[in-house]
Amino acid sequence: MQGRCILRSAALVGVRAVPVDVEVSVSNGLPGMSIVGMPDAAVRESQERVRAAIKACGYTMPADKVVVNLAPSSLRKTGSGFDLPIAAALLGATGQADAEKLAKYLMVGELSLEGRVRAVRGTLPYAECAQQEGLDLVVAADAADGASLNGVDQYCVKSLAQLRTMNLARLSVVGGGKAGGGIDFASVHGHDMAKRALQVAAAGEHGVLLMGPPGSGKTMLARALPSILPPLDERERIEAAMVHSTVGEPIDSILSGVRPFRKVHHSATTAGLVGGGNPVRPGEISLAHHGVLFLDELPEFGTSTLQALRQPMEQGRILITRADGTVELPARFMLVAAANPCPCGYFGDPAKECKCSATQVQRYQARIGGPLLDRIDIHIDVWRTDPSDIIGDAAPQTTSEELFSGVQAAREFASWRRDALGDSSRSDAAALLACCRMDVSTKRLFEALARDALLSGRGITRVLSLARTVADMAECKTVGEEHLLEAMGLRLRR
What we know:
Layout: E1 3-13, E2 16-27, E3 32-36, H1 41-44, H2 46-56, E4 65-71, H3 83-93, H4 99-102, E5 105-107, E6 110-111, E7 117-118, H5 123-133, E8 136-140, E9 154-157, E10 169-170, H6 192-204, E11 208-211, H7 218-224, H8 234-246, H9 252-255, E12 261-264, H10 270-274, E13 275-276, E14 281-282, H11 284-287, E15 292-295, H12 303-307, H13 310-315, E16 317-322, E17 325-330, E18 334-339, H14 358-366, H15 370-374, E19 378-381, H16 387-391, H17 400-413, H18 415-421, H19 424-427, H20 429-436, H21 440-452, H22 457-473, H23 481-491
Parallel strand pairs: 3-4, 5-8, 8-9, 11-18, 11-19, 12-15, 15-18
Antiparallel strand pairs: 1-2, 2-4, 6-7, 9-10, 13-14, 16-17
């Protein structure tokens, strides 16, 4: 029995799927199957799964030499998702399945020894790859991380036996729902200044550092932030869902418009935060793409782990370089960090005495590092709420709906400059100065404040960006002294 068949599959590289040709050749020679094309251990093991699955489903395993080539050979192939395309190509090469029909699909799936098709992570990236290649996608019936994409039909198979008739069912993909996320700011008593700071942060996508004693409400404020962020648009939903699909996490809330909120424990490694491994997998930074990355107890993180945040915060992407190439991961996120001011947590607290020495306080706060602090736009002190505000008959608290209306209005007002300048208006000093439109007296005031506060060039840019956001919230095309002073107050801790 001799024959040859070529099918399409794909390999995950970062958060994208790269097309792979699965070539199967059956020829005269010593019986056996070999897989070439830089397969890893999981791919090499697929020959045993494929052999058992073919026999279990009533097909005939050829008693000839079978060679499987995964092209391009320069790309390392990983995972068990090549089981299904290898088995399908083998059936096509031996005439037990219609090779012409099989060639219309991009196939991904793991096989059990009984021939059942199991899901693998990354259905959404595979669907995007099929869309770009002009093919339809075939995956397992229990794939739960698929989403509807224009121009690609998605089908599912439960068993290898279905390839006899090619009677494939449509894959049930996740649909959108009602967006919403985070706790309501109405449940956070007091902290009016911190709420205003978070509203400004949400309006301009600024990073925030909340510093205060234990129990002051830092974590609660951070968890409420998603409730005032606008829902993801269509492009952002697909981009964020792509990352979560790659690591096998649910994507239904993201596809309904809820921005990701990732709370990371301080024991996280650099690879866990930034991404890494072999093959490269996204870290928490990429999982927070178009959402919020919350780092609680910031000084407790490893120094090298924290410093790895610096480049992604500025560039909005992560480049991980390995011997076999460079992988790019998305990383456009809002950083919200919380920290105690000292080891005991009560430095500067007017009600409770701090037991730490000046050296201990300095050493503790130095763990964060000046370069990282310089990249965080807003620095806010958060103190404990007075018990009467919680227990007594306190005034009604500002709700998330009220804060969100200000965020939405500011973003809509800012569209006039973002359409013209794009992202350059956030990081380029000349572009920021142009869109701030400050008069001579406001510029002189800013020069004096920047000189007194010893602001770096980056710090000046950050204050300009904050002032522009504050002016957007007031729906002013010109940044005035009041906007500049509020921005300086948000930037500099007292």
